[in-house]
Specification:
The protein has 205 residues and is α/β, with parallel strands linked by helices. The chain is 45% helix and 17% strand. The strands form 2 sheets. It has a 6-stranded parallel sheet with strand order 4-3-8-7-5-6, with helices on both faces. A two-stranded antiparallel ribbon has the order 1-2. Helix 1 (16-27) packs across helix 5 (86-100) and helix 3 (50-58) crosses helix 8. The protein starts with a strand and ends in a 7-residue tail after the last helix.
Length: 205
């Protein structure tokens, strides 16, 4: 897939449909992949955070989450096809998983958010199999025991797809550090996507 280099990172020039087709292929394979979804806030943070930049460079897919990135690509003469937001990916990939009999795990959000998101998604897609949810303690990734416990919890559930809603840059760094330990085929960094799915936050118009 073609990439457009903007503000120090390479963003894949893909449509939502192409992303879903790619994830479908990954789900039938054996390799592990993860997806990042940068917006303007991420771009600002990337300039001063080498680990954050490295997490983006290692990602299998980097998608333009914010319209300002799409507008910038046009102004710079390298137009991206469209915006592919993490919050839109969550329900669409869940629909894909439901249709293909794949399992998902929801990680992130405040206490109760992932559970409510799972409930709402199962109402929308009755055949969706959510094999686990987890709202880890704040800064769990800095505590060896708590971090290990979280990874174990995910691996015991053995999901095909892991949605990670820890906020940037925590989610990207955490996934990049542990993708080789996680027994998942695809991990998607979706920011506030769980809050939107749960109905505890509203997306900007």
């Amino acid at each position: 897939m073609e990439r457009v280099r903007l503000f120090g990172i390479a963003i894949h020039d893909v449509t939502m449909q192409e992303v879903l087709e790619t994830i479908t292929r990954w789900l039938s394979g054996t390799e592990r992949h993860y997806v990042t979804t940068p917006n303007v806030d991420h771009i600002v943070r990337l300039r001063k955070d080498p680990e954050f930049r490295a997490a983006y460079h290692q990602a299998s897919l980097t998608l333009a989450d914010g319209m300002p990135l799409v507008w910038a690509s046009r102004l710079l003469g390298q137009p991206l096809k469209e915006r592919v937001a993490g919050s839109d990916l969550l329900p669409l990939v869940c629909q894909l998983a439901a249709e293909q009999g794949k399992t998902v795990f929801l990680l992130g959000g405040k206490l109760g958010v992932a559970e409510q998101a799972a409930l709402n998604l199962r109402r929308r897609f009755p055949s969706l199999r959510v094999v686990g949810t987890c709202a880890p303690p704040f800064r769990f990734e800095t505590e060896r025991i708590e971090n290990h416990r979280t990874i174990q919890r995910i691996n015991q559930a053995n999901p095909d797809v892991l949605f990670v809603g820890l906020g940037a840059p925590r989610q990207e760094k955490w996934v990049a550090r542990h993708i080789d330990e996680l027994k998942v085929k695809v991990a998607l960094c979706i920011g506030a996507g769980l809050d939107y799915a749960a109905g505890t936050a509203q997306r900007a118009p």
